[in-house]
Structures are given as C-alpha cells and as structure tokens.
Amino acid sequence: MKTLITSLNIILVLSSIHCQNQSKNGNIEKNVNVNTQKTKIEKIELTEQTRGFHTIMTFTPKSKTSSFNGEEKQSPMASSDWERITQQAAAIDLSKISTLEAPTTGRHSDQAMIANLMITSNGTTYTSASFDSGNPPKELKSLYDEFQRKQ
C-alpha cells in the first residue's frame, strides 16, 4: 500500500511539473510574438537649417515632400524606396534617438547646418538630438545616407 501511495505521489508531482513547463513555454511564445511584431513607421522627416536656409524632407509611404526655404515640391514615393528607408529606421532604437551624440560640433558656430531626424512610429514621434548636416551619429548614418540618395 505504501508503494502505491508513493507511486501516485510521484506521478502527481511529475504531471504537475510537466503542466507548469507547458504554461511557461506558452508565455515565452506569446512574448516572442509580441517582440517580433514590426513597428509601423508612418513618417520620417529630416530638417536642416542655418541662418537664411531651411530645408525639410518628409517621407511617407505614399509621397516624398521636399521644402527649401518654404518652396515645396511633392512627388510619389516608390514602395521599394519606402521599404529601404523603413528598414534603416527600424534598425534604430527609437527610444534612445534623442540621446545619440553627434560626432562633430560645427553647427555651434555656423560651420554646418543644424540637422534633426524625426521618426513617427505607431503614433509617437521620436526626435534625434541635433547634429551637423552631413555628419550624423553613427547609429543614424545609414538612414541619413538613404535620405541623401533620395534628394
């Protein structure tokens, strides 16, 4: 009788451990699915300015708008171009974009235009710290270079 009770206890313990492991694995799978969802990039904007000059380039899934001292030009955005740009933007940790350090400081003495990148994702706009036009922080370089190719 003792061996029967002991055997039943062992079976119950092992089955409860197995159920707990399945539950934990299910939670892990849910977390992985949440983390692998793509962030939706809605708009990306590059502004560059100094005394007397102000340029804005805005990319959305449907259009590219460029403005030079208030004169605006709009053209359609090719889906392949938008895909390349959003891939570059998705590689950036948007929550830290405002703390990225610029490699140079020419903008402080009018040696370079002041540049900023703004990325709107899932309804939230993330703005970079200021940097010298043509010389962004290394984390933003590939996205900045993609903007320059689309001018």
Walkthrough of the structure:
The protein has 151 residues and is α+β, with helices and mostly antiparallel strands. Helices cover 37% and strands 28% of the residues. It is built from three helices and seven strands. The chain has helices at 2-36, 79-90, 141-149, and strands spanning 41-50, 53-59, 63-68, 71-76, 114-121, 124-127, 131-132. Strands 1, 2, 3, 4, 5, 6 and 7 form a seven-stranded antiparallel β-sheet that branches. β1 (41-50) and β2 form a beta hairpin. α2 runs antiparallel to α3. The model is unreliable at 19-25 and 27-37 (pLDDT under 50).
Major sheet, described briefly? Answer: 7 strands, antiparallel
- The outline comes out as elongated
- Amino-to-carboxy terminus distance: 85 Å
Helix content bin: 25-40%
Individual helix count = 3
Strand content: 25-35%
Q: Which structural class best describes the helix and strand composition?
A: alpha+beta
What is the averaged pLDDT score? Answer: 83
Task: Report low-confidence residues grouped into runs of 5 or more.
Answer: 19-25, 27-37
Using only CA atoms, what is the Rg?
A: 26 Å
